[in-house]
Design goal:
The chain is α/β, with parallel strands linked by helices. It is built from 16 helices and 35 strands. In the C-terminal section; belongs to the MoeA family. In the N-terminal section; belongs to the MoaB/Mog family. Pathway: Cofactor biosynthesis; molybdopterin biosynthesis. Its cofactor is Mg(2+). It catalyses: adenylyl-molybdopterin + molybdate = Mo-molybdopterin + AMP + H(+); molybdopterin + ATP + H(+) = adenylyl-molybdopterin + diphosphate.
């Protein structure tokens, strides 16, 4: 590095990275920006990671900016947001002697061209002694954008801050400064060099922010607006709302096909082999890295023997030359005419050919101190080579496929033990999506709120029920609380949730009322696509399935988040969770087959059919001594009646039609829980 280069330091402020530096993504990215975009004017000589501690941040900044060997530039990354622990501006501001609001404005303006959420950052900039200090966001993408926005201007600022003659460096005017910095005249042109217009250009650094396709052919709709249903416009008022649903009525089978088509593909990651692997599905075959057993081992307690060259072992008395226990360590070789006492699972001594069971022997003599056997008589000559011996790799051979892609790691199976037995440290598995559960409606109050209900209030039964259902199905579930029936509130809640969960379950707000805002918010505010908004089933007709575009604020990666808006009636919410949400979770986590298992049952009572819609009737399934399964109704099936789930472990699938399904007839049940045994 040349002596004329400006020296910079990068300070990463992160609780996580300060404990585990391997998790830091910002530091390397910022170093790349200095190298690739800095015009060979910078040398990063200092890097450090500290937690969100005002004193530790200030200590490093002062160390780098005070004294004769001060750096030209100090960059911090992290702690500039609104979280409780975000304290970087509070740490840096008291140290600044000259503030630089222009640089702050430039960074914010550049990021604002990418996302309105740039305004959620609180950067500060200024000079301490002769060192310029900038605070950047903690996300790798945001930090890179902010630094790129001002980097070409920083050499001029650092030279001035170091005490250069202002008149001398401004000879030639602004035009000369722009040429030296390599930037065009005018703020608008400069911003376009950092973030080109996505509608007209694919920039080297930021074409991924754009939504157009430059010279490529633009997207063209293949349907008329009248062919594409859309939800109510909340701003139009109740007199303009739809009187009938704009969404076509689909069968359950059609709805499930749409879910399969639009669920984002499963993601994979390397997971350590431990108890937390339970419930995951393998995304690749697993090969044994070593044989089991790894050594020749005895399967009984007895005596290891060595067959003579003739291959025929003779009965008689033999000296006990050594002892082999089931423990690590070297075992001496067995010589001709000797035997070795051996325990179950212990390695055979080198040279041993078989093991005689202790039951086929008689103790002849002991050692002097009587602590060990000296001579033992073998009572049978009928001992074949390899008898009572587990050969190397007889259970598993190194290189064998021990588990196949698509197999699950269960709590009741031996998959975890099998992986551990061959020394497998980590395996590639599908990531299980994180579920968020949100209740909506101003009338909804927490179920555990003390005191009597006021007129119109309803206790929230759906949220705790669905959280429990998701967790019992093996998925992490996040409680998103209760959202108000206000467009802005609901949108904010959903946007926040999209940052932390992969799939959102909401209940309520999907019918035809003026305050049923889920569908409008998904479509009009979040830019989502509603794949279906009505299903011909009972209960659960207004069930809605949508996907919403999502851009990771850290990496810029674009993907889709899934939203299921379930009816607010408790029975409807539970039924539709099992019918639609559970299969989607299975698709996303690699589980096959998806959804609830199906069984055939004999009905214990007559059940009336619905003429227009398929019904999912809550039943109790029991196993009787005759080996058959029987189903009985839980009673009234009204969609608001959560009591219909009391004791229910199955959903009886009833087709639309006239009349009844009679007692003694055979039907199909989706099993939600364990079968009750009356055997």
């Amino acid at each position: 590095m040349g002596d004329n280069k400006l020296r910079a330091g990068i300070l990463i402020v992160s609780e996580t990275a300060s404990r585990d530096p391997s998790t830091d993504k910002c530091g390397p990215i910022l170093q790349d920006v200095f190298r690739d975009d800095g015009g060979d004017q910078w040398e990063v000589t200092e890097t450090k990671l500290v937690p969100d501690s005002i004193s530790e941040i200030q200590s490093v900044v002062k160390q780098w900016s005070d004294g004769e060997d001060a750096l030209s530039l100090v960059i911090t990354s992290g702690g500039t947001g609104f979280a409780v622990k975000d304290r970087t501006p509070e740490a840096v501001t008291p140290l600044i002697e000259k503030h630089a609001p222009g640089l702050v404005h430039g960074m914010l303006a550049a990021s604002l061209a990418v996302t309105p959420f740039a305004l959620m950052s609180r950067p500060v900039a200024g000079v301490r002694n002769k060192t310029l200090i900038l605070t950047l966001p903690g996300s790798p993408k945001g930090a890179k954008e902010n630094l790129q926005a001002v980097l070409k201007l920083l050499p001029h600022a650092c030279v001035q801050a170091a005490g250069a003659d202002s008149r001398a460096i401004h000879v030639g005017g602004v035009k000369k400064l722009e040429e030296d910095a390599g930037v065009p005249s005018g703020a608008a042109l400069y911003m376009l060099t950092v973030y080109p217009d996505p509608r007209t250009n694919h920039s080297h650094y930021h074409h991924h922010h754009g939504h157009g396709h430059g010279a490529h052919a633009g997207p063209k709709a293949r349907t008329k607006p009248s062919d594409r249903p859309q939800s109510n416009d909340p701003s139009a008022g109740p007199t303009r709302r739809h009187r009938t649903s704009p969404y076509p009525m689909l069968s359950v089978e059609e709805a499930l096909k749409l879910i399969e088509q639009h669920i984002p593909p499963p993601q994979t990651f390397l997971a350590p082999v431990n108890e937390f692997l339970t419930g995951h599905v393998l995304a690749a075959d697993v090969h044994a890295t070593e044989s089991v057993p790894a050594f020749r081992a005895s399967i009984v307690d007895g005596y290891a023997i060595k067959h003579p060259a003739t291959g025929v072992f003779e009965r008689g008395t033999y000296p006990v030359a050594l002892v082999s226990h089931a423990q690590p360590g070297e075992v001496p070789p067995l010589q001709d005419g000797q035997i070795a006492r051996i325990t179950t699972g212990a390695p055979l001594p080198p040279g041993a050919t078989a093991v005689v069971m202790v039951e086929d022997t008689v103790l002849v003599s002991k050692t002097v101190n009587e602590s060990e056997e000296k001579d033992v008589e073998i009572l049978t000559p009928a001992v074949q080579p390899s008898e009572n011996v587990r050969e190397v790799g007889s259970d598993v051979r190194a290189g064998d496929v021990i588990l196949k892609k698509g197999e699950g790691i269960t709590a009741h199976g031996g998959e975890l033990g099998l992986l551990a037995s061959v020394g497998t440290v980590e395996v590639l598995v599908y990531r299980k999506p994180v579920v968020g559960v949100l209740s909506t409606g101003d009338e909804i109050v927490p179920h555990d709120r003390p005191g009597a209900l006021r007129l119109g209030e309803v206790r929230d039964t759906n949220r705790p029920t669905l959280l429990t259902a998701a967790r019992n199905s093996g998925f992490e579930a996040v409680d998103l609380g209760i959202a108000s029936d206000k467009p802005g509130t609901l949108e904010t809640t959903l946007r926040t949730a999209l940052q932390t969960v992969d799939l959102i379950i909401t209940t309520g707000g999907v019918s035809m009322g003026e305050l049923d805002l889920l569908k409008p918010t998904l479509e009009r505010s979040l830019g989502g696509v509603i794949h279906f908004g009505r299903v011909s089933m009972k209960p659960g007709k207004p069930t809605t399935f949508a996907t919403v575009p999502y851009k990771d604020p850290g990496t810029g990666h674009r993907s889709s988040r899934v939203v299921f808006s379930l009816p607010g009636n408790p029975a409807s919410a539970v039924v539709t969770f099992h019918l639609f949400v559970l299969p989607s979770l299975h698709y996303a986590s690699g589980v096959r087959p998806v959804g609830l298992p199906k069984v055939k049952v004999t009905l214990e009572e007559e059940v009336r059919l619905d003429a227009k819609r398929a019904e999912y009737h809550r039943v109790v399934v029991v196993a009787r001594a005759d080996g058959r399964l029987y189903a009985s109704s839980t009673g009234g099936q009204r969609s608001s009646r959560i009591g219909s789930f009391r004791g229910a472990n199955g959903l009886l699938v009833l087709p639309a039609g006239e009349g009844c399904v009679g007692r003694g007839e055979v039907g199909e049940v989706l099993l939600m829980g364990q079968v009750v045994s009356e055997v």
